[in-house]
Each structure stands twice: as C-alpha cells, then as structure tokens.
Amino acid sequence: MPPEKYKRVLLKISGESLQSQGGLVIDYDMLGNISRQIKHVRGEGVDVAVVIGGGNIWRGSDAAAHGMDRATADYAGMLATVINALALQDSLEHMGVDTRTQSAILIQAVAEPYIRRRAIRHMEKGRVVIFAGGTGNPYMTTDTAAALRAIEIGADALFMAKNGVDGVYDSDPRLNPKAKRFNRITHMQALEMRLEVMDATSLSLCMENNLPIIVFDITAPDTIQRAVAGENIGTTVSSEVE
Q1: Strand pairing of 8-13 and 47-52?
Q2: Beta strands in 53-194 (DSSP E)
Q3: Partners of 198 in the β-ladder
Q4: Helix (H) or strand (E) holding 177
Q5: Max avg pLDDT among 13-17, 67-71, 91-95
Q6: Under 8 Å between Cβ of 77 and 16
Q7: I want to staple 167 with a disulfide (CB 3.0 to 4.6 A). Which of 29, 144, 213, 235 is the partner?
Q8: What is the separation, in whole angstroms, between the first and last Cα of the chain?
C-alpha cells in the first residue's frame, strides 16, 4: 500500500449501509468490517472522524410524508444516529480503538456534547471521534452535518461511503445499465447536473470551502483503506479536475 495521501479525514457512513438483509436493524458483519478498516487507518497515523446516518432505523422524510410534523420526525432521526454511533463506538472499542462519541443534541448519559476544540483534541490524542445527532437542527441532513464537521475539524477530504454504488454516475446505475461513472468531476458540475453526490446545501458548502469529496462503495473490499491511501477508486469531486 502506498503512503497515505490524507492525514485527517471525515468518513460519512449512511445508515442504510448498516441495514441487515436478515431483518436486524444493524448488520454486525458490516459494522465489524467498517471498524476493522478504521482501526487500520488509525494505526497508520491518520486522524479519523465519522458522521453516521440513521436511515436503517428511522427516516424523517418518510415519517413526514405520512403526516408527522417534519421537525419532530427529524429529531427522531437524530436519535437514530445516536444509536448507530454507540454501536460503532462499541465495535471499535472491542478492537482496541480509543473512541469518543459527540452528539449535536444533548444526551449526556451516553455521549459528549459536540465541542469543536474538544473533538480536534481527541483526534490529536489518537482517538476516533464519531459525530452523532446530525447538525442538531431539523431540515438538515446528515450529509450537511458531514460537510460542516469536516470543514470545522480541518479534514483533508470528506469520504462519502455509499451503499452498493461505487461512485457518481450521470444517472442511477441501478436503473440504467448504461449509466456513465465519473472518475473526477467538479463541485460546480455536480451541482449543475444535479448529480446525487449529496444534497445541494452540503455540496455548496464543500465547494465554498474547497473540500474534496471521495465517493466510493462501502461494501467493496477495503475501500476505506484504499481511499485514504489515495488510490483511484470511485469518484473524486473537487474544485478543479486535474
């Protein structure tokens, strides 16, 4: 493996990627695989932070579509991310990885409150930091939380780990077998073409702060390790196409 390209990364894990096909809320094999890769990356001296979604447990947009108050539905989704964060924390700690969970909503019995300087200090001490609770605000996605936290902690890149999709395509590859995958693309091109990298608010935030986004398939072998090493996997979204 070549020398690591990135020294500090933020990994965005969707809740759907943790969904068990057997009906369980969490696929513990996938959880263990993600934890193993994070341990390897952390062992190579790379600072790692994680933002985790809650879609395997609760989707606020679905609840709102069925008549639930949108803000209430979104707050319930934030609690779902805390559950996933605690599961990932426990998995990492069982592998000997010192981990801290910080939540944007106050839930002090199980997680620290989000404090930017404390999060950075944790990483400086070699700890993995998991950010739960989204941004703490309804109507904001966990993609927005990932972009915001990555910028706040000074990450070199935002890793968007997709569930079964190995990059950014010009159309949905699950519906169109002729869909074209981009190797590299700019933030502006992704916005103009309305590509499903992340929501427009999050993508604009990354563009304004010159934060590269690496999109890859979390279910493929060792993709987190390979992405950190700078291998050409998935799609790179950046300010300029090299």
Answers
A1: parallel
A2: 99-103, 112-113, 128-132, 157-162, 168-169, 181-182, 184-186
A3: none
A4: none
A5: 91-95
A6: no
A7: 235
A8: 23
Q: Which tokens sit at 28?
A: 């513990």
What is the reported pLDDT for 242? 56
* Residue 42 tokens, joined: 């952390």
Q: State the Rg of the chain over Cα.
A: 17
**Domain 8-238 falls in which CATH fold?**
Carbamate kinase (3.40.1160)
- The residue with tokens 């079964």 is 164
What type of residue sits at position 57? I
Residues 201, 191: Cα–Cα separation, whole Å: 10
Secondary structure (DSSP) of 140-166: --HHHHHHHHHHHTT-SEEEEEESS--
45-65 per-position pLDDT tens digit: 999 999 999 999 998 888 988
Q: Where are the domains of the chain?
A: 8-238
